[in-house]
Amino acid sequence: AREVSESCMDSLLTEIVSSYTNVLYASKPELAARRIEAIGYQVGHQLSERYTMERPRFSDHLEAIKFICKDFWSELFKKQIDNLKTNHRGTFVLQDDKFAWVSRMSSTDNSTSTQEPGNKTSEASSMHLYFPCGIIRGALSNLGISCAVSADISNLPACSFVIRIKV
Amino acid sequence: MAPAVPRSGDAIFANVERVNAELFTLTYGAIVRQLLTDLEEVEEVNKQLDQMGYNIGIRLIDEFLAKSNVTRCVDFRETAEVIAKVGFKMFLGVTASVTNWDNEGTCCSLILEDNPLVDFVELPDTCQGLYYCNILSGVVRGALEMVSMKTEITWIRDMLRGDDAFELQVKLLKQVPEEYPYKDDE
């Protein structure tokens, strides 16, 4: 399959976040966040469509989530989700122990003190997370599952995505 | 002696971390689509894409210089060749060709026949006037500015508009001589 350098993808992500938060919706972080999420949603929806074309429909939510953890994640990050938890009532927690899009960011953004992420950095990191959250929501939506997705990076470089399925 | 300017970016591309191009292409498409929704005017979208490219270019040049070992090009002709053969290859995995030089050697065209940005892209009629790949011209402009070359970049041909290739005209406006803090033979 065709590939491009990782810097291309990283550069696009950086620019999505900085254009929407610093230029287009500079005084409205919530709107910026929604737009970044929407871009991710489109990407997730299209990718999931492509990756499931020749596959039978998933029999239940867990099957679909497992697809996201394994096949889908591998296509995007060349690794699977490391840990999947569920409360069996529609909430799933997907943990990537070394999430590419935040591990590189946290190591490049803080030039001096990596131990002490300043406010600006954590704000920027959380803005970066709307994109992958949108990707997951879009991918699941294409599989007929509507949900809300949030991310937790309190344990960097691990990142957990919390999926709450809407009933 | 400074190392010779590389003639191809194949080896560098083989060694950099790479990602699924589909993810990259669809992400770019989603950005363009979202910008069209948010900015409404196609001309504004063109500007925004160019600006984003510029911002990327001024950062990417460092990685380019570090990984390519290009220290200094003797002239603009060599610079254009290096962008086409090494720069495009090392980031996008494709090679451009350089043609249509003017007599002064300050204006040429980069031709791209294979462009990962436009895989699966078809423009609806409502997007007339959109320079879909405008981010690319911004990247080239930004990167060149960081090595003291002011350029003006124009799309001459665009496959999304029915042309047979992408043609990017690069015109050198001004070259600011750099003072190097070191000598070549050090």
Outline the structure in words.
- The complex is a heterodimer of chains A (167) and B (186).
- Chain A is 56% helix and 16% strand.
- By secondary structure, chain A is of the alpha+beta class.
- In chain A, strands 2-3-5-4 form a four-stranded antiparallel beta sheet, with helices on one face.
- In chain A, helix 1 runs antiparallel to helix 2, helix 2 (29-51) packs parallel to helix 5 (119-142) and helix 4 (100-109) runs antiparallel to helix 5.
- The longest helix of chain B is centred in the first third of the chain and has 27 residues, at 42-68.
- The relative contact order of chain B is 0.17.
- By secondary structure, chain B is an alpha+beta fold.
- Chain B is globular, with a radius of gyration of 17 Å.
- Chain B has a four-stranded antiparallel beta sheet, covered by helices on one side.
- Chain B has helices at residues 10-15, 21-39, 42-68, 76-92, 134-146, and strands at 18-20, 97-99, 107-112, 149-157, 166-175.
- The interface between A and B is medium-sized, with 30 and 34 residues.
- Strand 1 of chain A pairs antiparallel with strand 1 (18-20) of chain B.
List keywords for this structure.
heterodimer; A: 167 residues; alpha+beta; four-stranded antiparallel sheet; 5 helices; 56% helix; globular; B: 186 residues; Muramoyl-pentapeptide Carboxypeptidase, domain 2; 5 strands; 44% helix
Question: Any chance you could write out the topology, listing elements then pairs?
Answer:
The complex is a heterodimer of chains A (167) and B (186).
Chain A: E1 3-5, H1 6-24, H2 29-51, H3 61-77, E2 83-86, E3 91-96, H4 100-109, H5 119-142, E4 147-152, E5 159-165
Antiparallel strand pairs in A: 2-3, 3-5, 4-5
Helix pairs in contact in A: 1-2, 1-5, 2-5, 4-5
Chain B: H1 10-15, E1 18-20, H2 21-39, H3 42-68, H4 76-92, E2 97-99, E3 107-112, H5 134-146, E4 149-157, E5 166-175
Antiparallel strand pairs in B: 2-3, 3-5, 4-5
